[in-house]
Amino acid sequence: MARRPLPRILRNGGAQLARSRELARTAADSATDVLHPLITIMRGLRRLASAGRRRWLDTPKDRRGALLFLVASVVLVVALLPYGPLLAVITLMTAAAWQGRDRVPAGSRGPDESQVKRLRSLYHALVPYFSSAGDPDPLYTHGGAWESAFPAYEFDGTGRITHLLINYPAYYTDGEPESRARIEHLLAAKSGRGREYHFAWDEEGNQLTVRVLAPLPADIAAQRFVTSPGETVLGFTDPTRVRRTLPLTHGEEQRDVPPVVWRTGVRSTESHLLAAGHPGSGISTLLRSVALQALVHGDVVIIDGGGTGEYACLTGRNGVLSVECGLAGALASLQWAAHETERRLIATNRAHQAGDPPPADTRRPLWILLDRPSAFTHLAAADGREDPQSLLQVPLRHGRPVNVTVVVADQLDSMEALTDAVRQHTRARVVLGPATPDQVAAVLGAPPHTTPVEHVPPGRGYARLGTGPVHRLQVPATPNPYDDATGDAHRRAVLDLLPARTTTADAATEARAPGHTRPAPGLLSKAPADEPSADTVPATAGRHTEAAVPAEAAVAESS
Q: What is the pLDDT of residues 386-404, one digit of tens each?
């Protein structure tokens, strides 16, 4: 049987088909080039129409009538203007051409030789941790390719890594803190020391994101913050986990900085604070900042276990009930604070039973700031007296319903001297100064997600409120204004925030509302008339005030 010959187009028409396809492709490209402006304008019109539709859907129904009236008015005005429709069409075409332009970013160039060398070195350093002998398709192998392990990366001007996305195998124990700490330490060492890195572990997607954090501003001076009553700004942090910002004055410019806001009061779940750090880390700066903010709406009792006069600028000020530096004064002030807490509880309970609102004196916040209580613990043990920390049990346990807040600060090497009541009821925690991850985790209850650096400015550390995340923290500069090493700008900023001085205790008592039973005599420091103002004469140590006793006891002694 003879075979039928194939059609001519199948026998020798390959070249013709290729030429036809090339002509068709050339014609399509030419048409695209010619019609590109029209395509751009049509794309822009479509985007403008979509934006207008979204705007119409986002507008509340009660405002759509006003919006239609505004659009109709604009159309009428344009129609009545000379050459108005022509100008409107030109404007619309221009806006459409701008909106329809190609927005595809230019392809980023690949890493250079030095960057490839750094990425390859980092890949081989991770092989012993992210590889397993039984893995049939290992992602990390000796001599393997780093491209699949590092899908995204960024470098700075010096050639060091600033952002890195790492893929790791699913069998790696990323849920164990020890395993995470090993990888974080390795990445910080290989990517460049002296910088602070943030690590975000995605356990579900088996990815680790490494970012280099910018240093927090350390030169923001103390000032009035835009906060509500019951809110205290501990410091400033990164905008990654804090959505709120505060307007601040930084020199001659204004800036918005994300704060770490600590909420106190009846509805607070972290009503007491514990701060720890090494000497010179900024603990006293934090307490001065908290005291200046607390004096806006409440009263403050300050107990300085260091005895270095760090709080002498607050002595005798309105709202400062006591500034104690000795053991006897500390015991008397804390004893009065415990009695005052009990009195407030009784008054509030009676008001609740009678169906009345709590008395005004129980709603005014009372702050107890205790710096270095471990120093008093040793003195009390040597003198055979009661430990002042034992008097904090009532304010710590029952102070929240009656607006009594306790702030305790001590050094990291003295944390074991703190009582169980202080450890259990201070759910807001702060660690300042250079500290190891283990020390930070021991105080905050969770390790930080960043690598600590060796050299940090005063007031730099970490904060955690309750069971929330660990935030980087920079306390606003609130130095001792009577210290010779304080700059003029920071000294003036603190002095401007200090309340006015109280000349006599009797004057302060008369200024209070009638029926106020909080004891003022013996708590407010008396400033003699012939004594110069403390704003011009530096004080070398905090002045001791008289013993703080309840009002009932004072009346009994006077009778």
A: 899 999 999 999 999 999 9
pTM, rounded to two decimals = 0.69
Phi-psi region of 419 (alpha: psi -120 to 50; beta: other; left: phi over 0): beta
Cβ 188 vs Cβ 194: under 8 Å: no
The string of pLDDT tens digits covering residues 281-332 is 999 999 999 999 999 999 999 999 888 889 999 999 999 999 999 999 999 9
Angle between helices 84-99 and 64-80 (to 10 degrees): 120
User: In terms of Cα–Cα distance, which of 292, 330, 343, 317 is closest to 518?
Assistant: 343
Task: Report how far residue 398's alpha carbon sits from residue 390's, in angstroms, rounded to the nearest whole number.
Answer: 14
Going by their DSSP bridges, the two strands 471-474 and 460-465 should be labelled as antiparallel
How many other C-beta atoms lie within 10 A of the C-beta of residue 102? 8
Task: Write the DSSP string, 251-305.
Answer: TTEEEEE-EEEEE-STT-S--SEEEEE-TTSSHHHHHHHHHHHHTTTSEEEEEES
Burial class (CB in 10 A: 0-12, 13-18, 19+), 431: buried
Give me the pLDDT at residue 14, please.
54
Helix, strand and coil percent figures for the chain, each rounded to 5? 40, 15, 40
Does residue 191 sit in helix, strand or coil? helix
- The whole-angstrom separation of Cα 554 and Cα 559 is 9
Which residues have CB under 8 Å from 378's CB, separation 6+? 417
CB-CB contact of 224 with 251 (8 Å):
no
Give the CA distances from residue 309 to residues 205, 379, 475, 548, in Å, rounded to whole numbers and listed in that order: 54, 18, 20, 20
What does the angle CA 301 – CA 306 – CA 310 come to, to the nearest 5 degrees?
A: 65
Q: How many helices (H) and strands (E) does the chain have?
A: 16, 16
Strand partners, 253: 250
